Amino acid sequence: MRLYKTLILFIVLSFSWIPGLPQSLPDVTEIMGQSKQKIDMLLGVPGFCEKSDSTMECRYNGGQTVIFYVDEKAQWLRIQDTGGIPFEAKSIVSFGLKEMSPQKRAPSLISWTDLPGFKVVSFTSHDFKTISSAYFEKTL
């Protein structure tokens, strides 16, 4: 019986680390404007970081979450795999934001330009059913 429980635990843990499986979505209100140190505590250590003159790009969750730091604070955030969240405006609440009507709606794009604290928020979709990519840019 003990071997059986150990095997089940091993299988569960193994599947939780497979690249490509959706990770929990970050609450963008807790991330934007924060330091890398604070975000590392929320999301874990990034798998990759690259610095340029005034920005630093870091990839978290196997590259599915990309954060660009400007002046050492999170300014841009892109989430590549949202785990099948429906491609609709009300899905904005899945990222910790309040539901509001978007300023632009096209077959593969939904975007907002008047959300408090954000310059732009946009969702894109490749299949017109689920969000393929979510982008958030903080107001300076």
Q: Could you name the ranges where pLDDT drops below 50 across 5 or more consecutive residues?
A: 2-23
Mean pLDDT: 84
The tally of beta strands, per DSSP, is 8
Q: Which percent range fits the helix content?
A: 10-25%
Order of helices and strands: HHHEEEEEEEE
- The quaternary state of the protein chains shown equals single chain
Secondary-structure-derived class: alpha+beta
**Number of helical segments?**
3
- Counted up, domains total 2
Strand content: 25-35%
Calculate Rg over CA atoms. Answer: 17 Å
Distance between the termini: 58 Å
Structure description:
The protein is an alpha+beta fold. It folds into two domains: 28-74, no CATH class; 81-140, no CATH class. Helix content is 19%, strand content 31%. The chain contains three helices and eight strands; from the N terminus they run αααββββββββ. The chain has helices spanning 2-15, 28-31, 36-43; strands spanning 48-51, 55-60, 65-70, 73-79, 104-106, 109-112, 118-124, 133-138. Strands 1-2-3-4-8-7-6-5 form an eight-stranded antiparallel β-sheet, covered by helices on one side. Strand 5 and strand 6 (109-112) form a beta hairpin. Mean pLDDT is 84; it is low at 2-23.
